[in-house]
Request: fold
Amino acid sequence: MPFAPVFRSEWLKIRTVRSLLATLLVLFAVTTAFSALAAVDPEDHGADPLFTALSGTTLGQIAALAFGSLAVSAEYREGAAVRLSLTAVPRRGLWFAAKAAAIAAVVLAVALVTSLAALLAGLAGLGDAADGLTTADQVRGVLGGAVYLTLMALLAAGLATLLRSGVATLSVLIPFILVVSFVVGDALGTAVDFMPDRAGQTVLRSEPDGTLGPWTGLAVTACWTAAALLAGAWRLRRQDA
Reply:
Protein backbone atom coordinates (compact mmCIF):
# COMPACT_ATOMS: atom_id res chain seq x y z
CA MET A 1 0.00 0.00 0.00
CA PRO A 2 1.40 3.45 -0.91
CA PHE A 3 2.36 5.86 1.85
CA ALA A 4 0.27 8.81 0.59
CA PRO A 5 -3.24 7.39 1.19
CA VAL A 6 -2.24 6.14 4.65
CA PHE A 7 -0.87 9.57 5.51
CA ARG A 8 -4.06 11.17 4.21
CA SER A 9 -6.22 8.94 6.39
CA GLU A 10 -4.18 9.81 9.48
CA TRP A 11 -4.43 13.50 8.61
CA LEU A 12 -8.21 13.16 8.37
CA LYS A 13 -8.32 11.47 11.78
CA ILE A 14 -6.55 14.44 13.35
CA ARG A 15 -8.91 16.90 11.66
CA THR A 16 -11.99 15.13 13.01
CA VAL A 17 -10.93 14.78 16.66
CA ARG A 18 -12.04 17.92 18.49
CA SER A 19 -9.76 17.39 21.47
CA LEU A 20 -6.72 17.43 19.18
CA LEU A 21 -7.82 20.65 17.48
CA ALA A 22 -8.44 22.20 20.90
CA THR A 23 -4.93 21.21 21.96
CA LEU A 24 -3.49 23.03 18.96
CA LEU A 25 -5.49 26.12 19.87
CA VAL A 26 -4.10 25.94 23.41
CA LEU A 27 -0.59 25.60 21.99
CA PHE A 28 -0.99 28.82 20.04
CA ALA A 29 -2.75 30.77 22.79
CA VAL A 30 -0.48 29.76 25.67
CA THR A 31 2.77 30.23 23.78
CA THR A 32 1.82 33.64 22.41
CA ALA A 33 0.25 34.95 25.62
CA PHE A 34 3.10 33.96 27.91
CA SER A 35 5.71 35.32 25.50
CA ALA A 36 3.89 38.66 25.55
CA LEU A 37 3.61 38.63 29.35
CA ALA A 38 7.29 37.76 29.84
CA ALA A 39 8.36 40.54 27.50
CA VAL A 40 6.51 43.27 29.36
CA ASP A 41 8.07 42.26 32.69
CA PRO A 42 10.89 44.75 33.29
CA GLU A 43 12.87 42.17 35.25
CA ASP A 44 13.22 40.01 32.13
CA HIS A 45 14.67 42.75 29.93
CA GLY A 46 18.19 42.08 31.16
CA ALA A 47 18.04 38.48 30.05
CA ASP A 48 18.51 37.01 26.58
CA PRO A 49 16.01 39.03 24.49
CA LEU A 50 15.35 36.22 21.99
CA PHE A 51 14.59 33.72 24.73
CA THR A 52 12.42 36.27 26.52
CA ALA A 53 10.43 36.92 23.34
CA LEU A 54 9.93 33.18 22.81
CA SER A 55 9.70 32.13 26.44
CA GLY A 56 6.09 31.03 26.02
CA THR A 57 7.46 28.01 24.19
CA THR A 58 8.47 26.50 27.54
CA LEU A 59 4.79 26.32 28.50
CA GLY A 60 3.44 25.72 25.02
CA GLN A 61 5.51 22.54 24.83
CA ILE A 62 3.10 20.95 27.32
CA ALA A 63 0.31 21.35 24.76
CA ALA A 64 2.61 19.85 22.11
CA LEU A 65 3.26 16.87 24.37
CA ALA A 66 -0.48 16.51 24.97
CA PHE A 67 -1.18 16.60 21.24
CA GLY A 68 1.36 13.91 20.44
CA SER A 69 0.21 11.60 23.21
CA LEU A 70 -3.51 12.09 22.48
CA ALA A 71 -3.07 11.52 18.74
CA VAL A 72 -1.72 8.04 19.51
CA SER A 73 -3.60 7.11 22.67
CA ALA A 74 -6.94 7.74 20.93
CA GLU A 75 -6.16 4.64 18.86
CA TYR A 76 -5.92 2.48 21.98
CA ARG A 77 -9.17 3.44 23.66
CA GLU A 78 -10.86 0.06 24.11
CA GLY A 79 -8.55 -1.24 21.36
CA ALA A 80 -11.16 -0.77 18.62
CA ALA A 81 -9.56 2.02 16.61
CA VAL A 82 -6.07 0.59 16.43
CA ARG A 83 -7.35 -2.84 15.37
CA LEU A 84 -9.37 -1.22 12.60
CA SER A 85 -6.37 0.86 11.53
CA LEU A 86 -4.08 -2.17 11.38
CA THR A 87 -6.68 -4.20 9.54
CA ALA A 88 -6.80 -1.50 6.88
CA VAL A 89 -3.00 -1.14 6.89
CA PRO A 90 -1.45 -4.50 7.81
CA ARG A 91 2.09 -3.14 7.48
CA ARG A 92 2.49 -1.76 10.99
CA GLY A 93 5.67 0.12 10.21
CA LEU A 94 3.98 1.93 7.35
CA TRP A 95 0.98 2.84 9.50
CA PHE A 96 3.17 4.12 12.34
CA ALA A 97 5.35 6.15 9.95
CA ALA A 98 2.23 7.75 8.46
CA LYS A 99 0.85 8.48 11.92
CA ALA A 100 4.12 10.13 12.99
CA ALA A 101 4.37 12.08 9.73
CA ALA A 102 0.81 13.39 10.10
CA ILE A 103 1.49 14.48 13.68
CA ALA A 104 4.73 16.18 12.61
CA ALA A 105 3.14 17.98 9.66
CA VAL A 106 0.24 19.36 11.70
CA VAL A 107 2.35 20.45 14.67
CA LEU A 108 5.05 21.99 12.49
CA ALA A 109 2.50 24.08 10.57
CA VAL A 110 0.82 25.33 13.74
CA ALA A 111 4.14 25.81 15.54
CA LEU A 112 5.55 27.99 12.75
CA VAL A 113 2.59 30.35 13.02
CA THR A 114 2.75 30.18 16.82
CA SER A 115 6.47 30.93 17.03
CA LEU A 116 6.13 33.87 14.68
CA ALA A 117 3.18 35.29 16.63
CA ALA A 118 5.03 34.77 19.93
CA LEU A 119 8.13 36.51 18.59
CA LEU A 120 6.16 39.50 17.34
CA ALA A 121 4.29 39.79 20.64
CA GLY A 122 7.52 39.45 22.57
CA LEU A 123 9.38 42.02 20.50
CA ALA A 124 6.54 44.48 20.91
CA GLY A 125 6.78 44.11 24.68
CA LEU A 126 10.57 44.30 24.79
CA GLY A 127 10.75 47.50 22.77
CA ASP A 128 14.28 48.95 22.74
CA ALA A 129 15.59 45.95 24.72
CA ALA A 130 15.32 43.87 21.54
CA ASP A 131 17.39 46.20 19.35
CA GLY A 132 20.42 43.90 19.56
CA LEU A 133 18.64 40.99 17.90
CA THR A 134 19.60 40.34 14.30
CA THR A 135 17.26 39.10 11.60
CA ALA A 136 19.20 35.83 11.57
CA ASP A 137 18.59 35.40 15.31
CA GLN A 138 14.87 35.96 14.87
CA VAL A 139 14.56 33.58 11.92
CA ARG A 140 16.50 30.91 13.82
CA GLY A 141 14.28 31.39 16.84
CA VAL A 142 11.06 31.01 14.86
CA LEU A 143 12.21 28.05 12.77
CA GLY A 144 14.03 26.39 15.65
CA GLY A 145 11.13 26.90 18.04
CA ALA A 146 8.72 25.30 15.56
CA VAL A 147 11.01 22.31 15.04
CA TYR A 148 11.48 21.97 18.81
CA LEU A 149 7.73 21.86 19.46
CA THR A 150 7.34 19.30 16.67
CA LEU A 151 10.05 17.09 18.15
CA MET A 152 8.40 17.24 21.57
CA ALA A 153 5.06 16.18 20.07
CA LEU A 154 6.76 13.25 18.33
CA LEU A 155 8.59 12.35 21.55
CA ALA A 156 5.22 12.06 23.27
CA ALA A 157 3.78 10.09 20.33
CA GLY A 158 6.59 7.56 20.50
CA LEU A 159 6.27 7.14 24.26
CA ALA A 160 2.47 6.86 24.01
CA THR A 161 2.88 4.04 21.49
CA LEU A 162 5.25 2.31 23.88
CA LEU A 163 3.04 2.77 26.95
CA ARG A 164 -0.31 2.65 25.08
CA SER A 165 -1.68 5.34 27.35
CA GLY A 166 -1.87 9.10 27.04
CA VAL A 167 -2.23 9.53 30.79
CA ALA A 168 0.85 7.41 31.50
CA THR A 169 2.81 9.29 28.86
CA LEU A 170 2.05 12.72 30.27
CA SER A 171 2.60 11.42 33.80
CA VAL A 172 6.15 10.55 32.77
CA LEU A 173 7.04 13.46 30.50
CA ILE A 174 5.60 16.46 32.33
CA PRO A 175 7.32 15.70 35.69
CA PHE A 176 10.48 14.79 33.78
CA ILE A 177 10.55 18.19 32.08
CA LEU A 178 9.20 20.37 34.87
CA VAL A 179 10.78 18.63 37.87
CA VAL A 180 13.96 16.89 36.73
CA SER A 181 15.09 19.58 34.32
CA PHE A 182 14.22 22.72 36.29
CA VAL A 183 14.13 21.66 39.95
CA VAL A 184 17.02 19.20 40.26
CA GLY A 185 18.76 20.14 37.03
CA ASP A 186 21.49 22.21 38.69
CA ALA A 187 22.53 19.23 40.78
CA LEU A 188 23.20 17.25 37.59
CA GLY A 189 25.88 19.64 36.36
CA THR A 190 26.52 19.74 32.62
CA ALA A 191 24.45 16.55 32.16
CA VAL A 192 21.29 18.68 32.37
CA ASP A 193 22.27 20.32 29.07
CA PHE A 194 21.49 17.01 27.36
CA MET A 195 17.93 16.76 28.67
CA PRO A 196 15.48 16.84 25.73
CA ASP A 197 13.96 20.18 26.75
CA ARG A 198 17.11 21.97 27.86
CA ALA A 199 19.02 20.83 24.77
CA GLY A 200 16.32 21.84 22.31
CA GLN A 201 15.65 25.21 23.91
CA THR A 202 19.18 26.40 23.17
CA VAL A 203 17.89 27.27 19.70
CA LEU A 204 15.68 29.90 21.35
CA ARG A 205 18.65 31.82 22.72
CA SER A 206 20.60 34.45 20.82
CA GLU A 207 23.73 33.51 22.79
CA PRO A 208 23.56 29.97 24.24
CA ASP A 209 25.70 29.71 27.36
CA GLY A 210 25.66 25.94 27.91
CA THR A 211 27.57 22.99 26.50
CA LEU A 212 25.55 22.82 23.30
CA GLY A 213 24.96 25.26 20.47
CA PRO A 214 21.57 26.04 18.92
CA TRP A 215 21.52 23.32 16.28
CA THR A 216 23.52 20.72 18.19
CA GLY A 217 21.07 21.13 21.05
CA LEU A 218 18.16 20.59 18.69
CA ALA A 219 19.96 17.50 17.36
CA VAL A 220 20.14 16.09 20.89
CA THR A 221 16.39 16.55 21.27
CA ALA A 222 15.95 14.83 17.90
CA CYS A 223 17.93 11.86 19.24
CA TRP A 224 15.60 11.59 22.25
CA THR A 225 12.63 11.74 19.88
CA ALA A 226 14.09 9.10 17.55
CA ALA A 227 14.69 6.78 20.51
CA ALA A 228 11.08 7.18 21.67
CA LEU A 229 9.71 6.53 18.18
CA LEU A 230 11.89 3.47 17.73
CA ALA A 231 10.75 2.12 21.11
CA GLY A 232 7.12 2.71 20.13
CA ALA A 233 7.61 1.03 16.75
CA TRP A 234 9.27 -1.95 18.44
CA ARG A 235 6.29 -2.52 20.74
CA LEU A 236 3.82 -2.02 17.93
CA ARG A 237 5.55 -4.74 15.90
CA ARG A 238 6.09 -7.15 18.78
CA GLN A 239 2.72 -7.12 20.55
CA ASP A 240 -0.88 -7.56 19.54
CA ALA A 241 -2.99 -4.48 18.98
Observations:
- The two ends are 20 Å apart (CA to CA).
- The mean pLDDT is 89.
- Residues 20 and 67 are 6 Å apart (CA to CA).
- The chain has ten helices and no strands.
